[in-house]
Amino acid sequence: MSLHDKIPNNVDLNHDRRLQKALEKWQPKFVEWWTDMGPEGFQANDVYLRTAVSVEKDGWADFRYVKMPDYRWGIFLTPEEKHRPVGFGDMINVPSFENVPGEFRNSLRRLIVTQGDTEPASVEQQRLLGQCCPSLYDLRNLFQVNVEEGRHLWAMVYLLHRYFGRDGREEADELLERRSGNADKPRILEAFNQPIDDWLSFFCFTMFVDRDGKFQLAALAESGFSPLRRTTRFMLTEEAYHLFVGDTGISRIVRRSAQLHKESNGDPIGLGGIPLHIIQRYINYWFTYSLDLFGGEISSNAADFFASGLKGRYNEEKKFQDHVANEGFVDIPVVEGGTLTNRQVPTRNAMNELLRDEYISDSENAIRRWNKVIASEGVDFELTLPHRRFHRHKGEYAGHYFDTDGAIVTEGVYRAKASEILPSEEDYALVKSLMVQVTKPGQMANWICPPKQGIDGQPLEFEYVRLN
Ligand SMILES: [Fe+2]
Ligand SMILES: [Fe+2]
């Protein structure tokens, strides 16, 4: 572990002078990007952050006050399991790839660039949120997520520089040149071009979009390309906290909304709360955008990634017996002549859909937990997840209209109901009007409950961000 090098790492960077030099040349560009596009208005403040300092299960993180531009973004791969072979696909049981096999070079680069692009994108999307944070605790969590997305960018850039030569270096530069929501140079995936202007959106994003990240990273953590497997394994350790921020953030809002519903007999707006049906609409919006991130229901790319041992299924090693998956079919409803009909899709071509299944069931668990919170406050309201076909922009269901139960409907019916189902301009305006910055240690905005506990054993009143 070289923690005190210019670039902290456990990949023996100082034994590869060329690579080290190339990354040290990229580093100031990254810092410049961070200064321009990172959290606005807080770059000079001390933030109580965790920094990855090891890949051991216990004690991998170090907590202390850091100014964000001084954060120690490092490159960490989990140790390689000895002689681990490729675990699935056509190359099953051959030794793991330590280098990029020539025939997979383009697809692998695409996978890494697409993952890498999401990391800075989310930092850009969230850069103004500090100005309307509900508490210092939440402000610190926002910044924690942001700096770790920065580290995830480093993780992908390391792979590009180390394994893809000049192409990789160019891709690494372009990762700092695209901008979320920019018409000329947008980020690659649509969910990462959507604005995040309020904290309900932020929590939905970390709940649903980062959760897509969890499943993508988990599928890559099965990869036969060893460096990709090892880097994504470690990213998952950090990612778990991002999901926690989203899940508990929504849960705290849901609880507060339920309390204010009760106090106000069903109209919490007057008491400064967010109505539960608006939370539902935000969930509908972000959940469905996240579903798009899994790619087409029927995908020859997904089949190729699996065949070549690059991207597995969720828990491929633990959960499945047949790692070749060359037989069998998955029934996928598709639209034909205006109605839904089942199509039998070879398992390998349905890999995106299988990963989406896992994601949906994981999301359903959260919905159940939030509904328990609402019930425990004595309010009669249930949150639901919309059907996977509703409001899709990619894949088989894009370009068609479905209701939230997945039934096909006409455009007219869809549009007539849209304002009840997706956030309206008024909803956004209302939520935004509640976003007033709260920065007194221990204080909480009225529309959200305090968390159960503080960070790293610190009390809630702890000064998680020093503002002066
Ligand atoms: Fe990330
Ligand atoms: Fe994340």
Secondary structure class reads mainly alpha
Level-2 CATH architecture: Orthogonal Bundle
CATH class: Mainly Alpha
According to CATH, the homologous superfamily is Ribonucleotide Reductase, subunit A
Largest sheet: 3 strands, antiparallel
Low-confidence stretches: none
Widest sheet: strand ordering = 2-1-5
Task: Give the distance, in angstroms, between the N- and C-terminal Cα atoms.
Answer: 34 Å
Give the tally of structural domains. Answer: 1
Give the beta-strand count.
5
Strand proportion? 5-15%
CATH fold naming? Ribonucleotide Reductase, subunit A
Q: Averaged pLDDT, please?
A: 95
What letter string, H or E per element, gives the SSE order? HEEHHHHHHHHEEHHHE
Give the helix tally.
Answer: 12
- What is the global morphology? globular
Radius of gyration over all CA atoms, rounded? 22 Å
Listed once per kind, the bound small molecules are: fe (ii) ion
Task: Indicate the percent of residues in helices.
Answer: 40-55%
Could you characterize the architecture of this molecule?
The chain is mainly alpha-helical. It has one domain: Ribonucleotide Reductase, subunit A (Orthogonal Bundle). Helix content is 46%, strand content 7%. The protein has twelve helices and five strands. The protein has a three-stranded antiparallel beta sheet with strand order 2-1-5. Strands 3-4 form a two-stranded antiparallel ribbon. A hairpin with a 2-residue loop joins strand 3 (329-336) and strand 4. Helix 2 runs antiparallel to helix 3 (136-163), helix 3 (136-163) packs antiparallel against helix 6 (226-263) and helix 6 (226-263) runs parallel beside helix 10 (351-376).
